[in-house]
Each structure stands twice: as structure tokens, then as C-alpha cells.
Design goal:
115 residues, seven-stranded mixed β-sheet, globular, mainly beta, four-stranded antiparallel β-sheet, 0% helix
Length: 115
């Protein structure tokens, strides 16, 4: 099992920034992917960004150029730097862990972009 603990959500005005963090613990495989997904009310969960243990990244089209994903040197914590936030970025953001045999989800953190 892999446990994920998220932090950093909250309320921010349009154009503002937030940074989300997700700490992974447990049976972490050396080859894995950590990522962020989001789900807005009435919509399906969608990929925001993900990063592999080798450092490769990809972002969803809606956030490209505004959000950046990174990992710390231990590779067990992933960060999502969110800039130029828009009201349509409002959603519950979920951390995700994936390796060859296991997938885990965090409990989610609310991000609300509103004036």
C-alpha cells in the first residue's frame, strides 16, 4: 500500500497562485508516476499533470503553460505550482500514485478560484 497526504488547497483570487504538495509513503516502487488529477462538480476527473520517477512530465491541455509539476530529491513528494489561476480551475485536486502493480489516490484537496 502507498499512502498519499495532500496539502496546500484553498481559496484564491483569479490570477493568483497556489502550490499543492503530496507526500507519498509506504511501499513505493522505484519506478513510479506521481500525478495530480482534478474533478469539478458535474464533470469527470481529468489529468492535471504527472511526473515519472525518471523526471518525465506531461500536463493537461487546460493547464499547460500555467501549472508546473515537480518532485523533491527523495522523489516521494510531488508539488504542483499553479499560476494564473482561473475560475474554471476550481475543483477537488487529487494526488495519484501509479506503478506497475498498484494505484493509490489521496483524499483530495479543494481549490477554489473566485473573487
Amino acid at each position: 500500500q502507498v499512502q498519499l497526504v495532500e496539502s496546500g488547497g484553498g481559496l484564491v483570487q483569479p490570477g493568483g497562485s497556489l502550490r499543492l504538495s503530496c507526500a507519498a509513503s509506504g511501499n513505493i516502487h522505484s519506478i513510479n508516476t506521481l500525478g495530480w488529477y482534478r474533478q469539478a462538480p458535474g464533470k469527470e476527473r481529468e489529468l492535471v499533470a504527472r511526473i515519472t520517477s525518471g523526471g518525465s512530465t506531461n500536463c493537461g491541455a487546460a493547464v499547460k503553460g500555467r501549472f508546473t509539476i515537480s518532485r523533491d530529491h527523495t522523489k516521494t513528494t510531488v508539488y504542483l505550482q499553479m499560476n494564473s489561476l482561473k475560475p474554471e480551475d476550481t475543483a477537488v485536486y487529487y494526488c495519484n500514485y501509479l506503478d506497475l502493480t498498484l494505484q493509490s489516490w489521496g483524499q483530495g484537496t479543494q481549490v477554489t478560484v473566485s473573487s
